[in-house]
Specification:
Elements lengths: L2 H5 L7 E9 L5 H9 L18 E7 L2 E7 L13 H16 L6 E7 L6 H11 L9 E6 L8 H14 L6 E4 L8 H21 L5 H5 L3 E8 L5 H9 L17 E8 L2 E9 L8 H20 L5 E7 L5 H14 L6 E6 L8 H13 L6 E4 L7 H17 L10 H12 L12 H10 L5 H11 L6
Parallel strand pairs: 1-3, 1-4, 4-5, 5-6, 7-9, 7-10, 10-11, 11-12
Antiparallel strand pairs: 2-3, 8-9
């Protein structure tokens, strides 16, 4: 996977595909995914027990399309295996239902080891997998792993095997063979590259196109990206865009709740992202209170015009959880969105980690203990010259966003919303700070925040507990 494949921003409207990999345990589903993305992303095992005990999703960009590759638990593990065949079937059926409730299943890849004849056991696995599919129009391709024995005569082998499949009512629209043995010779490396290319051609040829209704339905995702200055929000926007569309600048916006909107098409999604400044310390002074209300009013107006918010993205450094981190979480999750908008975490500056996900494994419980909960996370670096880590970072962010594309939007009347936020902001004002009151407060809300005199007066009364002059 070359850097350019990941980092270029694709023009126009791309398409997203859901491709499910299923088969008997130990037949090479996870290894196949690793081959396809040319990186070690899907956990594999040479042990006696299977390793894919739950459904895993991997995001990959191929030309103008986004592919979600779903690795599913294997069937036919022994009685002491990681997961029973019954549970593997339930997991697969649950995945199909979930994807059909969103944007569908576009291809099923049935993986099995090279065999000289179709066995009853292989047919049983096929029948079990197909029983989980409620839409029989989903194309099914056969991918034969450990295929070295058929390397010199694949077409003759397939012609014979497909006849057996027809007799057993096992339907495939096409097939591919993959050598899963890594060899030291140049010839074997070339053969492996050809296998990967053939596999991608097969997937592109047979994956069902999204219908126009599915592409347009609910695919504009409105996101507020927030965090304190300097945590790498600009880099996160660049990761999503696939290009350096904005340059990080610590001095560009320093006022709490200042925001800049960015729009990007990614796959079948269109993202509207408000890059928003959070607190740079746990509280604010009286001098920062009025400007914060003004910035909040602008943000609320834009978000309301856009139809509401689907997701909050909390950008934070991969270091200690500070009081400022907690204050930002409270400001956006509790105050701005009334605990009604899901939060995803984007953890930055993890280039020092051998495996960036290690940070999450070590710190997930700590974040929960500090009251920071999320629906998903991405561990990233924003440094493009670290090609492998940067590519994995973009895949992690896109995976988080596409996983969260099914959430509804939160909104409320603008006046009620700004009143809620302004009252909430008072809880962050530093103890002992003198706040403007009375006509001075009303005037400040009009002049510095852009509120009408009527709204400013009503808001002042709310902030002062209903007092009037």
């Amino acid at each position: 996977m070359r850097g350019a494949d990941i980092q270029q921003i694709c023009p126009g409207h791309m398409v997203a595909y859901n491709v499910i990999f299923a088969g008997e345990t130990g037949h090479g589903k996870s290894s196949l995914i690793n081959f396809l993305v040319k990186q070690h992303v899907s956990k594999t095992s040479g042990d006696m027990l299977g390793v894919t005990s739950e459904t895993q999703r991997y995001i990959f960009l191929q030309e103008n399309s986004v592919y979600r590759l779903w690795d599913t638990p294997g069937f036919n593990e022994g009685s002491r295996g990681t997961i029973s065949t019954q549970d593997a079937g339930k997991a697969l059926e649950s995945l199909f239902k979930e994807l059909y409730s969103r944007d569908g299943v576009h291809l099923l890849v049935f993986c099995f080891r090279f065999t000289k004849a179709i066995t009853n056991g292989l047919q049983g696995v096929y029948d079990s997998i197909l029983s989980c599919i409620h839409d029989k129009s989903v194309p099914v391709v056969a991918v034969v792993t450990h295929a070295d024995e058929m390397r010199h005569e694949p077409n003759a082998w397939w012609k014979r095997i497909i006849g057996e499949c027809v007799e057993r009512r096992m339907k495939f629209v096409d097939y591919a063979s993959v050598c899963t043995i890594q060899g030291p010779t140049t010839q074997m490396a070339d053969e492996r590259r050809k296998d990967v290319d053939d596999m991608w051609k097969l997937m592109k040829r047979h994956a069902r196109q999204l219908s126009p209704a599915r592409v347009e339905d609910g695919k504009v995702i409105n996101i507020i990206l927030f965090g304190e200055a300097g945590v790498g929000k600009s880099s996160v926007v660049n990761l999503i865009a696939g290009n350096n569309v904005i340059k990080p600048n610590g001095n560009a916006m320093t006022s709490t709740l200042s925001s800049t909107e960015h729009r990007f098409p990614v796959g079948s999604h269109s993202f509207r992202i408000w890059d928003t400044v959070g607190f740079d310390q746990p509280d604010i002074g009286s001098q920062g209170f009025i400007p914060a209300i003004g910035k909040a009013y602008k943000l609320i107006h834009e978000v309301t015009e856009a139809g509401g918010i689907n997701l909050l993205l909390f950008c934070l450094r991969g270091s200690r959880v500070t009081m400022t981190v907690q204050s930002n979480y409270r400001l956006f999750y509790e105050v701005l969105c009334d605990k009604k908008v899901p939060i995803g975490l984007v953890i930055t500056y993890l280039e020092h980690e051998d495996d960036m996900e290690d940070f999450w494994r070590r710190n997930e419980n700590t974040l929960t203990q500090f009251g920071i909960k999320s629906v998903g996370h991405a561990c990233v670096t924003g440094l493009p010259h670290l090609h492998k880590q940067y590519q994995l970072s973009r895949l992690a962010v896109l995976g988080l966003l596409t996983d969260c594309d099914h959430f509804g939007r939160y909104t409320m009347p603008s006046e009620d919303w700004i009143t809620r936020v302004a009252k909430g902001l008072t809880s962050f004002v530093r103890v002992g700070e003198r706040m403007p009151t009375g006509k001075r407060l009303t005037k400040a809300l009009v002049k510095r925040c852009g509120l009408s005199e009527e709204l400013a007066e009503r808001l002042r009364k709310q902030l002062e507990g209903g007092k009037s002059e």
